[in-house]
Amino acid sequence: MSKSVTIGSRPDCDLVVNVPSVSGHHCRLTRDENGFVLEDLNSTNGTFVNGERIRSAVRVRLTATDSIHLGSHALSAERLLSLIEREPTPTISFRGAEMVIGRVLGCDQVIDLPMISSRHARLFREGDRILIEDLRSSNGTFVNGTRVEGPVVLNSGDEVGLGSHLVTVAADSWTQADVVQPVRSGEPLSGTPQAAVPSLTESSVTSSTSSPATGLAGLLSRPWRPVALLAQAPLAALLIVGLVGTNSPAPILFWLGLAAIWFGLSTGLFGHAVNALLERIEWTGSARFVTLLLALAALCAAQCVLVWLVASNMAGLKASTLPALSFLFLAALVGLAMGLVILVLAPRPAIAWSIAVLLLLLFSFLGGFRPTLQDQPVWLRPIAGLLPSRWAFEGLVLLEAGEPEIQTAGSDWQPEKPDMAELYFPAATHRMGTSADALALVLMLIGLSAAAIFLSANATIVKPGKDGGVQATPAGESEGSAA
């Protein structure tokens, strides 16, 4: 693309529209060789073209006669299009044997744009020819509008698309252009010895961006994020025991279960940062997906261990450590799945965190403990059964109370103190047992995980079309099946 302008209410926008319905960075207009496209930037009140709202991550073709509304504010399409003037396509000069183009420092050619992957594409020489290959980028590499599936030959003047960003390779990059036999642009190599075309694995091993030092630098680039997640666990334990007191363990156990759900929610919203880190150190595909889930689950487990160790020692809890940690970890995993669902549905951090806090408040109210469940309103009881806080609380209470002593027939013996679990989950009416409690949490985890995977697989990805335009394709749909 040649140029883009950002429209919003913030002073740093190219077109400032200071009205209440317009977000800080509301939408972006871009011009390419086929005209103009408009995209919404996750605005609060939406961007509308001819009365239809632009969906997230979808670009809409725009003409001067179209009707545009930013929320409720009307904007002249003709005025908007006049903001962009055609500029020449950026040129890249290629020197040496190979050049990696990407978004992160360490690439030979750094282009810091959101549609470009950390290591996007590689130029390399074979004799007098220059070839380009895609390095498994998210948005693809294109030559004159045709997607690159393997190493292809470039000729002077060819237009290269890095996602939706268009560049050309400088003509003087072909040092012997007058001797080179013309090759049809974008034609895959044929008859080339295997050793002559370095594979992606070889290029990844030799590239400095995939070195252990770079990976370690990525891990240490923002250490405060995982540290903040881990630090909230002992802080939560101190607050729970300090504010609730140690007269009865039941309220402490309820808030510990709720804290575990919050650990999962907050860790799930942290997932985008972990995913970006794995992309930065070049872990892709299923390996990155599995590593992402394991890393987030490990953070949840570490927080559960910390909060239990601190709280159980301060309050003198008697429940066995391993079963109690199992319930806390299950509750945290349910919260983690919720966080991932929120992350897919609400990619804007402010909205995502607001939803997470509202959910926590909802769980604390609807799934809150009472002297007996009979004290809850009738309409609230079935709702409480759908909340993870209720099942985590019952499981922890039963573990803390232990097996009740059984009175023998004909004996007038009475227990020294009543069964604590009976106060909250009467055995005759509401008690389900630890196995059922764990099963309920597992079923919630499976359902939410399936929802997160489904929503993520059907997210829309924007990529250049074969005619140089822009098309929206669901992430789970192959190019061949896209309309």
CA(first)-CA(last) distance: 23 Å
Structural class by secondary-structure content? alpha+beta
Low-confidence stretches: 176-222, 405-417, 459-483
What's the multimeric state? single chain
The shape, in one word, is elongated
Percent of residues in helical segments?
A: 40-55%
| Main pleated-sheet profile | 5 strands, mixed
Average pLDDT level: 74
Please report which band the strand proportion falls in: under 5%, 5-15%, 15-25%, 25-35%, 35-45% or over 45%.
Answer: 15-25%
Radius of gyration: 29 Å
Query: How many alpha or pi helices?
Result: 13
| Widest beta sheet: strand line-up | 2-1-3-4-7
Structure explained in plain terms:
With about 475 residues, the protein is α+β, with helices and mostly antiparallel strands. It contains 13 helices and 21 strands. The chain has helices at about 75-80, 200-205, 210-220, 225-245, 250-270, 270-280, 285-315, 320-345, 350-365, 380-385, 390-400, 420-425, 435-455, and strands spanning about 5-10, 15, 25-30, 35-40, 45-50, 50-55, 60, 65-70, 75, 90, 100, 110, 120-125, 130-135, 140-145, 145, 150-155, 160, 165-170, 460-465, 470-475. The chain has a 5-stranded mixed sheet. Strands 10-19-18-15-16 form a 5-stranded mixed sheet, with no helix packed on it. Strands 12-11-13-14-17 form a 5-stranded mixed sheet, with no helix packed on it. Strand 8 (about 65-70) and strand 9 (about 75) form a beta hairpin. It is elongated.
